[in-house]
Design brief:
With 759 residues, the protein is of the alpha+beta class. It contains 11 helices and 41 strands.
Length: 759
């Protein structure tokens, strides 16, 4: 499956996010409504439109700034603005341009309270329509989006708001996360105990799910009963008096075990009869939960009771926090997405539990965690909630349902509270999202704050810090922090040689030096980070490479320019120019941004280099590596490091191209768009003049030095099997490094080796 060109797609009606906000009386007595128009409207991103006098109209970008975007996003029910856009980025609107020269301070409750020219007074055209990108977290109490299930605890009318476990045994008090204790629920703002009369394992399953645990386990309550009775007899304990009050108890809860939240279970807060004693002969309900593998101390794997035939492995991609992301399923050996038709909390909860989290907080639709690339495996997923794996649920094959990647489903799961956030902090930055990294670690038997040695500090380590702080992804990893002053009480370097895989939940889980060894001595050479809530994610279209690859014998007289740019093998230096030719393996590159932020070059315009061959500036000096490898992984063709000018060659309907190389334009790849380098462009090849016939691996690595941060680096390598007989070339089995399951990749390699007697 490959992404269809924009022209071949059916036109998609823009999804519209419509929310109401009543402006305060005074300047604007009439209710003012805002909406975001465009395919990503439900995700908080689109053209800003205002309803005035019964007609929808747009807002001109003149004078519109971040303060205005902040007010608009808050009015739409989001916590903050990420950015604002100009020049009809999300397409040109229709009808009146209601607001122009909008000037907001940032604290206004409604866009109508800001200074502006007056309703309908404008000298703009629709090519200047403003748009906004709001942060994905919605404020409690704001009207729910039609496309999400909402934070259940925040849905109005639910009386059970939160759940917690109060640890009672000494070992439970010391463990993190807390997995065993007495159930307490928040009812109308007050914490109450739950009576254990009639308490079931189904109730426990729901409680554990809300707390971020996939399963409950049996608990021996006889010991707890003894403790309870001892406390009742203790004259110094107030338990006897408290336990006789109805306000101390939630009387009865009856769950089926499939509910995503306790508030969905039938609940009896007071006793059935007015004078009946509260929880007679009872005590508080005790629950014990089993954490998922990631949250278990010293254990590697969780247990799975599913039959192997039904287990479809799942993974989450592009999420800002642990336990959230676009849902991807491994089917027929290939990773693909899930269509959001009938996607609900029951199905989302099965995914969350399968991954070792609790139940789902939200079942997200409309590709709110970015669009996938490749097959869409499932549609109309129907789960009961008792399934151990998504593969056990009923579903339709997505090919029949006409789904596209604009409808990729995503989840936000309940995750256990690990207290990791309190063990790291950022100091000295201009905003809470940046600064010197300071960690809390044991030093000579007591916990102490200190700095991290900047030597060898990289993006993987920075990613872990940002995740640990709940700030999303790292945009920069700094080995020197000259401009940021760390805290005076954390001047000592307490961690060095930190090496993270990038998937850890806390820096303390990464490998590091035993005794600290930091020759640079910390201070201005301490590690620093900059975090961002959203990041880009570049993926090569493997199918297109396979379809466009061919050989060309190109005369040297046409290769002077390419030779200067080092796009040929070294043997070209010793040829009798301009006589002779080079054999080139040519192909098209199409690089998609599947993330949730634009991919922008790290270098400013002043550092871009002019490339005579391509007649434009290149903003990234090493953007891709092109290589031909033996099946053992050693290089046979030198390949080359290609520099690029980055632009939006194409975007899906409803998204405007924003980056262009011509005329020293802004460079980058917008969210959802792709940059295409056609096969007939200079340097879009590997020089295989010196390569003997045989079977090889063709490899492209995008953003190889991780110069620009991405939400996912596991899909940056694209490989094909390549057979060359000296005259013709066959390219097959092209895939990104994370597109197939490991067993499929191993099988492909094994077959290739057998065919070439390499085993």
């Amino acid at each position: 499956t490959m992404v269809m060109p924009a022209a071949a797609r059916p036109i998609l009606l823009p999804l519209v996010l419509l929310l109401c906000w009543v402006a305060p009386s005074g300047q604007e007595p009439a209710p003012v409504q805002l909406r975001l128009v465009g395919p990503r409207g439900p995700a908080g991103e689109g053209r800003l439109e205002v309803l005035y006098q019964g007609r929808w109209g747009t807002v001109c970008d003149d004078g519109f700034d971040f303060h205005s975007a902040t007010v608009a996003c808050r009015q739409l029910g989001y916590t903050a603005a990420v950015t604002w856009t100009h020049s009809a980025t999300y397409g040109q609107g229709e009808g009146p341009i209601w607001l122009d020269n909008v000037r907001c301070g940032g604290s206004e409750g409604s866009l109508a309270e800001c200074i502006h020219n007056g309703w309908g007074t404008s000298d703009c055209h629709h090519g200047e329509d403003a748009g906004v990108v709001c942060s994905g977290q919605r404020l409690p109490g704001s009207p729910p989006q039609a496309t999400t299930s909402g934070h259940l605890g925040e849905v109005l009318g639910l009386s059970l708001e939160e759940v917690r476990l109060k640890p009672i045994l000494a070992r439970a008090k010391l463990s993190m996360p807390v997995t065993e204790g007495a159930v307490e629920v928040k009812h109308n703002g007050r914490w109450r105990q739950v009576c254990d009369a009639g308490w079931t394992r189904n109730n426990s399953r729901v409680v554990c799910g809300m707390l971020g645990f996939p399963r409950e386990k049996h608990v021996n309550t006889s010991f707890y009963r003894k403790l309870w009775n001892m406390k009742l007899k203790d004259p110094n304990s107030s338990l006897k008096t408290l336990s006789q009050k109805n306000s101390f108890w939630v009387h009865k809860v009856r769950c089926q075990g499939t509910e995503p939240h306790l508030a969905h279970c039938p609940t009896q807060v007071a006793p059935p009869a007015p004078r009946q004693q509260a929880c007679p002969h009872g005590m508080h309900a005790i629950v014990s939960c089993l954490p998922g593998p990631t949250f278990q101390k010293g254990t590697g794997k969780g247990r799975s009771k599913t039959s192997p035939g039904k287990v479809l492995p799942v993974r989450l991609r592009a999420g800002t926090h642990a336990g959230e992301g676009r849902v991807e399923v491994l089917r027929h050996g290939q990773w693909g997405t899930v269509c959001d038709k009938q996607w609900d909390l029951a199905a989302a909860s099965v995914v969350c539990r399968q991954l070792g989290y609790g139940t789902a907080k939200q079942a997200l639709v409309g590709a709110q965690m970015g669009q996938g690339l490749g097959p869409i495996h499932m549609s109309e997923v129907r789960c009961t909630g008792h399934e151990q794996s998504l593969g056990e649920c009923r579903f339709q094959d997505a090919e029949r349902s006409g789904c596209r990647h604009e409808a990729d489903a995503a989840v936000r799961c309940h995750v256990p509270h690990m207290d990791f956030q309190t063990q790291v902090r950022l100091a000295g930055g201009r905003s809470p999202e940046e600064g010197v990294v300071e960690v809390l670690v044991p030093v000579q038997g007591r916990l102490q704050w200190g700095a991290v040695c900047g030597a060898q500090w990289g993006l993987n380590e920075a990613m872990v810090v940002c995740r640990q702080l709940g700030l999303g992804f790292a945009s920069h990893a700094l080995q020197e922090t000259w401009y940021w002053a760390g805290s005076p009480d954390a001047a000592q370097v307490v961690m060095s040689g930190v090496r993270c895989a990038g998937t850890e939940l806390a820096l303390q889980q990464c490998q590091r030096h035993g005794p600290v060894h930091c020759p640079s001595g910390g201070g201005r050479f301490s590690a620093g980070v900059t975090c961002t809530a959203h990041a880009p994610d570049l993926v090569m279209n493997a199918q297109l490479v396979q379809e466009t690859a061919y050989l060309e014998d190109r005369p040297l007289e046409l290769l002077y320019c390419a030779h200067e740019e080092r796009c040929l093998s070294r043997s070209a230096d010793h040829m009798h120019w301009p006589y002779g030719h080079r054999r080139l393996l040519r192909f098209s590159s199409q690089i998609h941004n599947l993330g949730r932020a634009d991919f922008r070059p790290k270098m400013g315009r002043h550092a871009w280099t002019w490339h005579q061959c391509h007649r434009h500036f290149h903003s990234i000096e090493v953007f891709t590596h092109y290589d031909l490898l033996t099946l053992n992984g050693s290089k046979v063709a030198e390949g080359h490091k290609a520099s690029f000018c980055l632009e939006d060659t194409n975007c899906p309907e409803g998204l405007q191209r924003r980056f262009a190389c011509a005329n020293f334009g802004e460079q980058g790849v917008s969210v959802g768009c792709w940059d295409t380098y056609r096969h007939d462009i200079d340097c879009q090849w590997i020089d295989i003049t010196d390569v003997p016939p045989g079977s090889y691996t063709f490899q492209v690595v995008v953003n190889p030095k991780h110069e620009v941060a991405e939400s996912d680096f596991s899909n940056n390598v694209m490989r094909c099997r390549c057979k060359y007989d000296g005259q013709r070339v066959w390219m097959h089995g092209c895939h990104t490094s994370d597109a197939y399951g490991a067993d499929v990749v191993n099988d492909l390699e094994r077959q290739e080796r057998l065919a070439n007697n390499l085993v």
